[in-house]
Amino acid sequence: MALIMETRLLLRKVKDLRCFTPRRTRVKEKWAATRPKFPPTKLALQHFDATYSVQLGKLWPSVRVALLSERKYGALLNNFSHDGVLEDLQAQGCRDFISDKAEEAQPCLELSSEVESRRDCMSTNKSADNSQQLSSLQFSPNIKCLVFPRGDITRFKPAKPDTYGLLGYYLMDAASLLPCLALDVQEGHTVLDLCAAPGGKTLALHQMQIVRFLCVNDTSVSRTLRLKRVLHSYTPKELLTVEKLRITSFDGTKWGEIESNTFDRVLVDVPCTTDRHSVMEDDNNIFSKSRIGERRRLPQLQLELLLAGIEAACPGGEILYSTCTLSQSQNLAVVEQAIHLARQNHGIHLQVVGLRHLTQMFRNTFHFAPDLHLGEMVIPHLAANFGPIYMCKLKRLT
Ligand SMILES: C[S@@+](CC[C@H](N)C(=O)[O-])C[C@H]1O[C@@H](n2cnc3c(N)ncnc32)[C@H](O)[C@@H]1O
């Protein structure tokens, strides 16, 4: 007892010693004037708590924890690199989630088409024959993305250049590849990537080596330069010819006026609230006070970009809309409005193409939101901390 009393007294004395530290040598954490009361990351989290707790209900607490934890990456393999990168990554315990999908998909084929046709009945726009898509969906064998198993949070080492200076893999959120796979690019297609920088999805489309002509655009000149650097770090010069690839920095909202009814496939990967970045990084954060206007205008910009992408596709062509936010107003609401306005203002009729087959294929790698009535969404989960990625596919009927 006496010993405990003595220890307590000693601790109190140590605490009191602070009072004798001269004021000038005390360190103040940071002056209040230079630190915002509510940093953008906090504002973002407050906003998400208010909206996503309603939108996602009981899923939100676990998605929130995952959003605030370290994200997981995938290594998009560079087919043009000559070193034994694939074997090396496999030896570390990684697997290519794309070629593994076949075994995952088999037991669920019937269930998947059944669920999808039920969803089609409920949604007037969903008339795509999913069972047919299941058998016809074939990915280019050239696209490989390696991931560590579920629950394994090992980080990838930075990629090294091979003897020709090409990097062996590109690190990206593996869920970001799903929009490229969902686009279902086939041999000889012309493809437009409307908002392409910094270029992860462009690189994936290029790696497929089946596109006849790839048109890559991003309004930001500096980000377009970054994209060019990415392409040059992964591709031999002779494959980056003007006959095969065009890179521009136009305002994508005007694309329909420049080049309409043209492309077999159009990827519209729009700017959004980038939820994961918004809760983790104060720098360049769309929730900062100076960017309130920009953030409020996002759904309108997204709508204009999607409409431009729809116009750029040829009749019969397909358009993939994607974001990296969970927000309904930037996802489903934008797609719904675009379908309506495309018909009303441009006489373009669209069909929503179901993607349930894709979620079934990759259900062992990603967590998908249940019961979205339009499109599919990867939601972050601690055991597989990819996403968020929302995607919705449209087919031009006229
Ligand atoms: C989500 S990022 C695209 C990411 C890219 N697809 C990738 O996989 O690396 C959105 C991009 O849209 C671009 N952007 C914003 N407004 C645009 C516009 N009006 N036209 C074209 N691109 C735009 C931004 O510069 C940004 O690079």
Walkthrough of the structure:
- It is found in: Mitochondrion.
- It catalyses: a cytidine in rRNA + S-adenosyl-L-methionine = a 5-methylcytidine in rRNA + S-adenosyl-L-homocysteine + H(+); a cytidine in mRNA + S-adenosyl-L-methionine = a 5-methylcytidine in mRNA + S-adenosyl-L-homocysteine + H(+).
- Keywords: Methyltransferase, Mitochondrion, RNA-binding, rRNA processing, S-adenosyl-L-methionine, Transferase, Transit peptide.
- The active site is at residue 324.
- This is 5-cytosine rRNA methyltransferase NSUN4.
- By secondary structure, the chain is α/β, with parallel strands linked by helices.
- The protein has one domain (61-277, 291-396): Rossmann fold, CATH 3.40.50.150.
- The protein is built from 15 helices and 12 strands.
- The strands form 2 sheets. Strands 5, 6, 7, 8, 9, 10, 11 and 12 form an 8-stranded mixed sheet that branches. It has a 4-stranded antiparallel sheet with strand order 2-3-1-4, with helices on one face.
- Strand 6 (213-217), helix 10 and strand 7 form a beta-alpha-beta unit.
- The relative contact order is 0.15.
- The structure holds S-adenosylmethionine (SAM).
- S-adenosylmethionine binds at residues 176, 195-201, 217-220, 223, 251-253, 269, 271.
